[in-house]
Amino acid sequence: MEERRAPVRLDARALALVLAAGAAPVAACDLAGSRVLESPRFALAYRTEPPRPGAGEHFAVELRICRPAAGAEGLRVDAHMPEHRHGMNYRPGLVALGGGHYRSEGWLFHMPGEWEFVFELGGERLADGVRIE
Amino acid sequence: MSRALVLALALAAAPPLGAQLLDWTEAERRAILRHGPWPAAWAPDPSNRVSGDPEAIALGERLFFEPRLGATGRVQCATCHVPYRGWQDGRARALGLEEVERNTPGLLDVRYRRWFGWDGAGDSLWAQSIRPILDPREMAGSAARAAALLRGEADYACRYARAFGTPPPAEDERLLAGIGKALAAFQETLVSGRTPFDDFRDALERGEREAAARYPAAAQRGLRLFIGRGRCNLCHLGPAFTNREFHDIGVPFFVAEGGVDAGRHRGIQRLRASPWNLLGPHSDARDAAVALKTRHVRLEHRNFGEFRVPALRNVALTAPYMHSGSLATLRDVVRHYSELNLDRLHADGEALLLPLKLDEGEAADLVAYLDSLTERAPALAPRHPLEPCR
Questions:
Q1: Which of A8, A21, B260, B379, CA to CA, is 20 to 30 A from B120?
Q2: Quick check: is A79 in a domain?
Q3: CA separation, residue A52 to residues A86, A131, B225 (Å)
Q4: Do residue B350 and residue A85 have CB atoms under 8 angstroms apart?
Q5: Number of H helices, E strands in chain B
Q6: Per-residue pLDDT of chain B (390 residues; tens, 9 = 90+)
Q7: Nearest partner of B79 among B135, B21, B153, judged by Cα
Q8: How far apart are CA B205 and CA B32, in angstroms?
Q9: Contact B243 A83 (CB under 8 A)
Q10: Which DSSP string corresponds to B306-359?
Q11: Where are the alpha helices (DSSP H) in B54-171?
């Protein structure tokens, strides 16, 4: 896994919503070596294990849901290649570890190129691009 | 050393007249280096407790050439996986007791695969090795027949005990799993040798321009197409030239009598129904992570018509090509991608493949490159008759 694109996909309207809502800062939302993604009602930190998965190799994802505080019932995780218009050949599982902390296994990017992690909760969608070598 | 001998050695080591090294960019160089080194690292299969064990390899070798595993005594593994043909049969479609609808894949480098069979219905080499024994069109055997052979013949019972540390068990299915595991241990030893491409790749890595320039110019141009405009390395990646997954590349999947070969779509269903899969009782894996792929594999409509991405090492030895053996030569394969019929793709909107529209020279270069992925000398040691087991 190599360079990443912009960390959070938020357009100008969403950014305005964040500011208007006065969403709580996510300074405490972190895992060592993680990426932080946020929207008005949804914020999370995630990292992959290993940190730089290669094409065709299984990897895991660790997540911490920081917002909403109520929990992450209905959280969905996935990834796809926007350019190729296909997803993964595997459906990652999600196990709650407590305290908003999750472990997701079964990930595999079967091609090199631009992939996008997708996290969905309560109608909010966060995405993060990554280049796989 | 005489001056004539020194001159002769110098000439032998020098690149041929007219040899040239293309002006590879740093990005191309990185892409090329990802296809090696060869042979690639490998670890024994944790789901098979006799993987890598010499006694199991010897047992598996004998079983591979054993026609009595089948119902008629006329078909053995080696009937289709012929050693001197790259461990396949050279036919479009395999012929066991009957002709089936798929091409026989070669077995060299099979140990590096993630899934087995054109549709990936096998999640381990040992499970895949059981399938043709039981298939009524291939060997038409049974667990009871195979188990009786192993229990009833002293040499087999002796070899089994040496490999597994216990006499052949009384339960037929458990013993059949052991037969599959011994067959897998043998097949894991079938590794292809080094190729002209490997010499080029390693010379490039070491910065040895003269050595790299010995690689034919046509193969270099073909390689540039392979990792560039052709984007072949999106799927044919890594040292074995495969992402070990499945794709629809527009090869017709109609079979005789108006049927279709659903490929990966059916393969995942068969995998899930198999008592031999890694989630079942016969896996020796202690770590749940070994079965991760089986637990998480996703069945989708787009899997219809997908087939395993074959490795490309020794590709020149394994004609005909594709899951149905429908393309006779490497030139036909290149023409297929050059003139790809997008209407045949069943990809649910996937935007990956486009016709390459190669001219004659480019097509010849790509064939030259593919040919250079074939070993010039086999890596396998000569095999000797097995000593009786005592």
A1: B379
A2: yes
A3: 21, 10, 28
A4: yes
A5: 15, 2
A6: 555 555 455 545 556 666 799 999 999 999 999 999 999 999 999 999 999 999 999 999 999 999 999 999 999 999 999 999 999 999 999 999 999 999 999 999 999 999 999 999 999 999 999 999 999 999 999 999 999 999 999 999 999 999 999 999 999 999 999 999 999 999 999 999 999 999 999 999 999 999 999 999 999 999 999 999 999 999 999 999 999 999 999 888 777 777 899 999 999 999 999 999 999 999 999 999 999 999 999 999 999 999 999 999 999 999 999 999 999 999 999 999 999 887 776 666 666 788 999 999 999 999 999 999 999 887 787 777 888 998
A7: B135
A8: 9
A9: no
A10: BEE----TTGGGS-SBSTT--B-SHHHHHHHHHT--GGG---TT----------
A11: 54-64, 77-80, 125-134, 143-152, 154-164
SS3 B169: coil
Cα A117-A118-A120 angle, rounded to 5 deg: 155
Task: Nearest by CB to B292, from A83, A86, A106: name it.
Answer: A106
Evaluate whether B19-39+194-249+316-371 and B44-191+264-303 have a shared fold: yes
Look up the CATH superfamily of B19-39+194-249+316-371.
Cytochrome c-like domain (1.10.760.10)
Give the torsion through C-alpha atoms of B44, B48, B50, B53, to 10 deg.
Answer: -20
Q: Which domain holds residue A86?
A: 12-132
Reported in sequence order, the residue ranges of A1-133 that DSSP labels E, i.e. its strands, are 35-38, 43-49, 58-67, 76-81, 86-87, 95-98, 101-108, 113-121, 124-132
Number of domains in chain A: 1
The answer, as to whether pTM is greater than 0.80, is: yes
Task: Tell me whether residue A2 is in a domain.
Answer: no
Q: Chain A: nearest CA to B245, how far in angstroms?
A: 7
Residues B317 and B15: their CA atoms lie apart, in Å, by: 27
Residue B133's nearest CA partner among B124, B144, B142, B120 is: B142
Smallest Cβ distance to B351: which of A56, A84, A91?
A: A84
Out of B30, B244, B298, the one facing A90 most closely (by C-beta) is B298
Q: What whole-number distance in Å separates Cα of residue B348 and Cα of residue B37?
A: 36
Residue-wise pLDDT tens digits, A67-90: 887 777 889 999 999 988 899 999
Inform me whether the C-beta atom of residue A30 falls under 8 Å from chain B C-beta atoms.
Answer: no
Residues 65-84 on A with a CB inside 8 Å of B are 83-84
A93: domain CATH number is 2.60.40.1930
pLDDT number for residue A71: 74
Residue B289 to residue B295: CA distance in whole angstroms: 9
